[in-house]
Amino acid sequence: MNPGMSFKYQSIDSSEKMPVCGRSELSLACITQGSSAMQVRWFKDDAAINVQTSYRSHVDNSGTKEFQKTKKGW
Fold first, then answer.
1. Dihedral (C-alpha) 6, 64, 60, 55: value to the nearest 10 degrees?
2. Which InterPro entries does the UniProt record give (predicted)?
3. In this structure, are residues 69 and 54 in contact, taking their beta carbons and an 8 Å threshold?
């Protein structure tokens, strides 16, 4: 690791299933901390979700990044 870089990493692998009804909102939190840009990947049914092509995103006033599914979604 580069001596000028530091990061905190915690992986959470949950097998707990929670049903979400169609058109329902779901909120998932991911908090990162480090001295350089962090990369976060989300998965659904063991497949990586491409948030660049499946979602529109914006950052609200609190600094929370929100994603909204597009028609190109899953």
1. 100
2. Ig-like_dom_sf, Ig-like_fold, Ig_I-set
3. yes
CB pairs under 8 A, 24+ apart, for 35-42? 35/4, 35/5, 35/6, 35/7, 36/5, 36/7, 38/7
Bridge partners (DSSP) listed for residue 43? 48
Query: What predicted TM-score, i.e. pTM, was given to this entire model?
Result: 0.43
In sequence order, what E strands does the chain have?
43-44, 47-48, 55-59, 65-69
Q: What is the pLDDT of residues 15-32, one digit of tens each?
A: 667 677 776 666 667 777
Mean pLDDT of 48-68: 72
**What band does 64 get if pLDDT is binned at 50, 70 and 90?**
confident
> Which pairs with CB-CB distance under 8 Å and at least 24 residues apart come from 36-40?
36/5, 36/7, 38/7
